[in-house]
Design brief:
alpha/beta, four-stranded mixed sheet, 2-dehydro-3-deoxyphosphooctonate aldolase, signal
Length: 150
């Protein structure tokens, strides 16, 4: 009896961790297909004016590109296209996966955001970006960053 009660409690707790409604605000299934440059980075032509874009878990950078099996390479393709505010070379580290949300693009019905920390010479404040490999959206440069010069 105790095992059954423990099992039911575990199922309820697990199910409550992922809401059935997504809180992501910038998903756009009609976003153009991403293209690659000769340097194998995503071609980005727009700059975000929204200070939450990429910096808030509800406004992640949606980098879905053909398949989620290319997850880490797609994150690299995006991050390698960026530079610091004055064109500085950035270094990045994946900190964690967090923030479960419902999605139809996985067999489990849920996805996670990946959190990256960006650093560059002369940086005064830590920068963390939320990246989403499961959904599509308009790919933009987050406020305070720039594009790497070729």
């Amino acid at each position: 009896m105790k095992k059954t009660l423990l099992f039911i409690t575990l199922i309820i707790i697990t199910a409550s961790c992922v809401s059935s409604k997504s809180t992501l605000k910038n998903v756009d299934d009609n976003a153009p297909v991403l293209t690659l440059s000769q340097n194998n980075t995503f071609i980005i032509t727009e700059y975000s004016k929204d200070k939450k874009y990429g910096y808030d878990q509800d406004y992640p950078i949606n980098i879905f590109y053909r398949t989620t099996k290319e997850d880490s390479i797609n994150q690299q393709r995006f991050l390698n296209a960026l530079a610091g505010p004055k064109g500085e070379i950035i270094r990045y580290t994946k900190l964690e996966s967090c923030c479960p949300f419902p999605t139809k693009r996985t067999d489990l019905g849920a996805g996670f955001l990946d959190v990256y920390e960006l650093k560059w010479d002369g940086q005064k404040k830590t920068v963390k970006l939320y990246l989403n490999i499961y959904e599509k959206g308009i790919l933009m440069v987050p406020v305070g960053l720039s594009l790497k010069k070729n």
